[in-house]
Design goal:
β3, α6 and β4 form a beta-alpha-beta unit. This protein has a single domain, classed as Aldolase class I (TIM Barrel, Alpha-Beta Barrel). Strands 1-2-3-4-5-6-7-8 form an 8-stranded parallel beta barrel, surrounded by 7 helices. It contains 14 helices and 8 strands. The protein is an alpha/beta fold and 331 residues long. The chain is globular, with a radius of gyration of 18 Å.
């Protein structure tokens, strides 16, 4: 993709999601974050742009994202019923986490059959052993949480965790490179990790809350060009904030059907998780997955049923109560 094509793609997607308004450095926090506010505006297609998508209102009943791997592209009605647990990366990345807490994390992931656990590199061996045969992937991080290490260091970190059994790598892109518009360097950074991961699934964290809307789009498109499998909103550790539905929607528009989009950072309750799924997320990084799975229950649900607001499903959910909004871990 040329610089001109990248610029045109960014302009189109920003116009569709935020009406052409430019945001400040905390755009991810200020841009409208609900599905209703992220209304689609018809635009002419440009080279490299994804196909048109339904309006925000239509997205509740028909999310038209699709792809060969249902765990990458967001869910579609044609894919059939899904459990909320299928979306969850059960996450524990705080530095003070203990071995006992990691064992508990894996037991919860095994019980609910989450998509993955996401842990720091030191715990990969333990999690691989604890989750053997469970059908739950082990994801680890590299360049975390700042993204400011060299590409060589990130690549070595990725090769290390994959060599010890991690099936997925959540890398932090060079955030300063993104903000500076150094797109060739961003692409090289991501590609170094993709190449060293030896076929493991690579998710690229762009820290969307500190980026302008057009930077969110461009970073996502570059991650796709570099061979990544997912783009991801946030580390969950930046003071600027975490995921918003508007950022997720921009990322989904930028990568189209081919990549997954992971919403992480501040996704602690069902209402927020459902907004992210409605905007196009195919994974949710959260430490609140147990509560969400208990709330929505273990049985697969149709798209329309899953995207109901918590007050609509609370009377029939397993726990009888949705997890409260706010509180909990930053992730």
């Amino acid at each position: 993709m040329t610089e001109a094509e990248l610029e045109a793609l960014a302009e189109q997607i920003v116009a569709r999601v935020v009406g052409g308004r430019k945001g400040g450095r905390a755009a991810g926090a200020r841009v409208a974050g609900t599905i209703a506010q992220a209304a689609a505006v018809p635009q002419r297609r440009v080279i490299g742009a994804p196909a048109p998508v339904p309006s925000a209102a239509a997205a509740i009943s028909d999310i038209s994202w699709r792809g060969p791997n249902v765990m990458k592209a967001a869910w579609t009605p044609a894919a059939g019923a899904r459990r909320v647990a299928d979306f969850v990366d059960h996450t524990l990345l705080k530095a003070e986490a203990t071995r006992a807490e990691m064992v508990k994390l894996c037991a919860e992931a095994r019980r609910h059959r989450f998509a993955a656990v996401c842990v720091n590199p030191v715990w990969v061996d333990l999690c691989v052993r604890e989750l053997a045969g469970a059908g739950v992937a082990v994801a680890s991080v590299c360049g975390f949480p700042l993204g400011a290490t060299t590409s060589r260091a990130k690549a070595a970190e990725a090769a290390d965790v994959v060599g010890r059994g991690a099936a997925e790598v959540d890398m932090v892109a060079g955030i300063g490179l993104i903000r500076g518009g150094e797109w060739s360097a961003v692409e090289d950074d991501v590609r170094a990790v993709v190449d060293s991961a030896r076929g493991a699934l690579v998710k690229v964290i762009i820290e969307s809350a500190v980026l302008e809307p057009d930077e969110i789009v461009k970073a996502s498109a570059i991650a796709k060009e570099a061979g990544a499998h997912f783009v991801k909103t946030s580390t969950g550790f930046h003071p600027a904030g975490g995921a918003t539905a508007a950022a997720v929607r921009m990322m989904r528009l930028a990568v189209g059907d081919d990549l997954g989009v992971k919403a992480a950072g501040g996704v602690r309750d069902c209402a927020t998780a459902l907004a992210m799924i409605g905007a196009g997320a195919s994974r949710i990084g959260t430490s609140s997955g147990v509560g969400m799975a208990s709330c929505l229950g273990p049985a697969p649900l149709s798209l329309a049923e899953l995207l109901k607001q918590p007050h609509a499903h609370a009377p029939t959910c397993t726990s009888g109560t949705c997890p409260p909004a706010g509180g909990g871990e930053p992730y």
